[in-house]
Specification:
It is built from 15 helices and 14 strands. The chain is α/β, with parallel strands linked by helices. The chain has three domains: about 140 residues, 3-Layer(aba) Sandwich (Rossmann fold); about 70 residues, Phosphorylase Kinase, domain 1 (2-Layer Sandwich); about 180 residues, Transferase(Phosphotransferase), domain 1, CATH 1.10.510. Helix 10 packs antiparallel against helix 12 and helix 12 runs antiparallel to helix 14. The radius of gyration is 23 Å and the shape is globular.
């Protein structure tokens, strides 16, 4: 089984309207399934621009006011485009315009925007077209750089490589970008006790850095919030994640070392897992025995989490890390909730939480959620492990979400049909028809693993 490789893109969504930004992120998750999508408000983006190096973003969705004319002092969007144009390297920019008109649209394009989309008229279809055009421009830019590099002599290539490594060392060891730069700007120092090395991950709410812990004397993964801590606004999600993980003591869950707040930014120090995640592993191709082994391990991890009275609510391959011995460790408990304490799929009315590809029907509909929602997500991962691709494709987030609610359970290829009953019970639309416990899931997978091993043995003998 081989997985289809899809282009990755680092996408930044900038919007002061948190609900609209989430709407954009859900659609971008579908348009860029291998991408890394982050969210910032305009004030955070202003600070981001101060440390922007051109290597942090491929595509920028800039939602701002564009005023009544190119000279309008209230045209924040044009002001930000001018600032970006001053940078030596800039991302492809799609302007999502509040207010604005034909004159400001022309000026935005002159300042380098790939497209100008009036916010009130933006549809999923129009967004899809604009994103694909922008990503093609990014691909052409990368191809041009590769062509230029190919034309260099061997000595020039070595010099260019050395210069790139030196620049990277400066960027990562001495001049931390992103949130670290924001922290440095607020207090004159980085997070006490942690020396940042390089950025290793990013989500819509946080950046993860490889950092050296002075106290521990080794590397850790340091997760730093992108927004200031604000209990009234619900911006203390790393504390919630810290408490959730601390409630689960198991090698099948990432180990937490420290939690704190510095410069009013939350940070979480945890075990560094350098061997990648299940998403990258699936892209390299997974055999049937390997797929079943991963499923058993994830089910065991869910058993531990559920036994601690929690449900993960954001189970997906990027949140399943791999240790050196190929065992799994669950990460990112930012959406975790008590099994008996959640009544809906969202912690904020009207905002979906999680990835569209892995959400259970009850999450999509905002209904009651329990541990069986995690089993649905495991079913999606099961299909992906066995086939190399996701069960419900779509050109928009809405298409994918509607399939979770209305489409039949996906059918596996004939050579994998023995796994269909397992998939059907994991991905049943009605949660009452799914497995009742992780133990039941484990029993079903273990039984299949025995059948699969016998079948392979017979095939080898023949």
């Amino acid at each position: 089984m081989t997985a289809r490789k899809q282009p990755a893109a680092r996408v930044l969504v900038v919007d002061d309207d948190a609900r609209y930004a989430e709407w954009l992120r859900h659609h971008l998750d579908v348009l860029c399934p291998q991408g890394n999508i982050s969210l910032l408000n305009l004030a955070e983006f202003e600070r981001w621009c101060a440390s922007f190096s051109g290597k942090d973003c491929d595509l920028l969705m800039l939602s701002a006011r564009f005023g009544a004319s190119p000279e309008d002092p209230q045209s924040q969007g044009l002001t930000l485009l001018r600032r970006l144009r001053e940078q030596p390297v800039t991302p492809a920019v799609i302007a999502v315009a509040e207010a604005g008109n034909e004159l400001t649209a022309v000026r935005a394009l002159q300042l380098g925007a790939v497209d100008y989309l009036p916010k009130r008229l933006l549809t999923p279809e129009r967004l899809s077209t604009a994103v694909h055009v922008a990503l093609r421009r990014v691909e052409r830019r990368v191809a041009q750089r590769l062509t230029s590099l190919a034309n260099l002599s061997r000595e020039q290539k070595l010099q260019a490589r050395a210069a790139a490594l030196e620049a990277a060392a400066v960027d990562t060891a001495l001049e931390p970008s992103g949130v670290a730069a924001l922290l440095e700007g607020t207090s004159g120092e980085v997070i006490p006790g942690y020396a940042l090395r390089l950025k290793i991950g990013e989500s819509e709410k946080a950046v993860v850095y490889l950092a050296n812990s002075t106290k521990r004397g080794h590397h850790v993964a340091l997760k730093v919030s992108k927004t200031l801590r604000d209990e009234a606004a619900g911006r203390q999600f790393l504390e919630r994640e810290y408490r959730a993980i601390m409630a689960v003591k198991s090698p099948m869950v990432v180990e937490i070392y420290d939690y704190g707040v510095h410069g009013n930014f939350e940070y979480l120090a945890m075990e560094y897992l350098p061997h990648g995640d299940l998403k990258a592993r699936i892209l390299r191709g997974v055999s049937e025995p390997e797929a079943l082994d991963y499923l058993i391990q994830i089910a065991l991890a869910l058993k531990v989490v559920h036994s601690a009275g929690l449900m993960h609510r954001d189970l997906k391959p990027p949140n399943v890390m791999l240790r050196e011995n190929n065992t799994v460790a669950l990460i990112d408990f930012g959406l975790a909730r008590a099994v008996d304490g959640a009544t809906s799929g969202s912690t904020q009315s009207g905002v979906l939480r999680g990835s569209p590809y892995y959400m259970s029907p009850e999450q999509v509909l905002g209904g009651h959620i329990d541990a069986r929602s995690d089993f649905y997500s495991l079913g999606v991962i099961c299909y992906e492990l066995l086939t190399g691709h996701k069960p419900y494709p779509g050109t928009t987030a809405m298409e994918v979400l509607q399939q979770h609610v209305n489409a039949p359970v996906p059918t596996l290829p004939p050579d994998l049909e023995r796994y269909q009953p397992l998939l059907a019970q994991l991905m049943a639309k009605n949660s009452t028809e799914r497995f009742a416990s992780a133990d039941d899931v484990l029993a079903a997978i273990t039984s299949l693993r025995g059948t699969s091993s016998s079948g392979e043995a017979r095939s080898s003998a023949a």
